[in-house]
Amino acid sequence: MNSKIKLAFEKIVGTSNIITNDLNPFNTDWMNKYVGSSQIVLTPQTTVQVSQILKFCNENLLKVVPQSGNTGLVGGSVPINDEIIISLKKMNKIQEFDLNSAILTSESGVILDNLNNYLLQYKYQMPWDLGARGSCLLGGNISTNAGGLNVVKHGLLRNYILGLEVVLPNGKILNLLNKNRKDNTGTDLKQLFIGSEGTLGIITKANVLCIPIPNEKKVFFLELKSFQDVIKVLQKVKRNEQLLAFEFMEGRILYKNMHRHNGNQLPFQFQEDRYYVLIEISGQSINVDSFSMDMMEFTQEIIMNQSEKEAQFLWKLREEIAESMGKMGYVLKYDVSIPPDKFEWLVNQIYPKREGPFHVYYGHVGDGNVHINIVFEQLEDLHKEEDKIEQKLFGLVKSEGGSISAEHGIGQHKRKYMELQKGKDVLECMNEIKRLFDPNGIMNPNKLL
């Protein structure tokens, strides 16, 4: 960074939209695992400013990193070296909600929670939900094709994005905004940017199809004796169209987290050798009795919330797991897709008979997404084991037709395993698309590809 470059940025965005001090929150990822050395953060307020920034950077071969809420787990939104960070947090205007079509039009820097709060007046909500809902931004959700808690019912985020506005690396503004449910006019270019992790351009606006807030919902918490029983419950309830979420947790981690709560609040006195499932059903009208009957043959007791506050507490038991693991030591976090009945098998292949450091598996069993967390007391031990674990884990996942990343993306973390996942021909095709959009390689370098 030199005075000439900084002066050019000041002319584009103004001094109030440039940050050069206290950059650690922008240079460091959520897990404190990846740390860059950027000297400047730009916070544009308009699409035109984003366009001018990228045009200048492209002409001067300056590499950039687009950044949303910086809540990712694979180092995709922080610099590797001293790239220029373009933060979208000030592009936070919701433009409109069309009640007739249920389509929201918004800038990409709006926090997910704020979108839901805005939609509340219309009795609608966003179709995806994430644990980081209080800090993640719309553009980051879209650029990583975020998964989350409701995929089992509503499907992936990309299904609800009808249109985008994207700034290309050369500064050209690509208008792909569209509020038509049906548009059969050739290649759907917006899909290239969904899940591309900021490597092809910067998303500045989006049209999102929203869903009605259900009139009724209930949360159930089950204690089961084996993982096989978890799968049997899943098979039983997945046929029910009321099913919104099906989350699985090992008793080992819930037992360790019991000290965080008043014992009287807990649905069970958690046991390390048991398995626990959180299920939520929703709809304009739900049949709680029939749903409960489907589960009773596998468990002696089903805890069901009696109030919204109780429902939120039951969800908190699930959502606090990631944070609590981080406080135990240095954590390797893996997020893979594999057939649900293979979850336990996969973990036992990595550490047979519970050998090795403390580790647990949990996650979205309803859509085949397992989270594996392995805790090390010393950072040196983590680095020593990481490559060995990943080569075995990702090889096993691939052998079962799974995915090395279910919802958190590739970022820096899994880039070297993309050929394993995609194969040489597919990976080369992805690289060709990258070269077409970004021939100078300025966009989020050394991420994804």
Automatic annotation (TrEMBL):
Which cofactors must be present for this protein to function? FAD
Instruction: Name the enzyme's class.
Output: oxidoreductase
Q: Which residues form the FAD-binding PCMH-type domain?
A: 34-213
The record's keywords, sorted A to Z, are: FAD, Flavoprotein, Oxidoreductase
Which is one Gene Ontology cellular component term of this protein?
mitochondrion
One of the record's GO molecular function terms: FAD binding
Q: State the EC number(s).
A: 1.1.2.4
Q: Write down the Pfam families for this protein, in alphabetical order.
A: FAD-oxidase_C, FAD_binding_4
Q: Which family does it belong to?
A: Belongs to the FAD-binding oxidoreductase/transferase type 4 family.
Q: What is this protein called?
A: D-lactate dehydrogenase (cytochrome)
**From which source organism is this entry?**
Paramecium pentaurelia
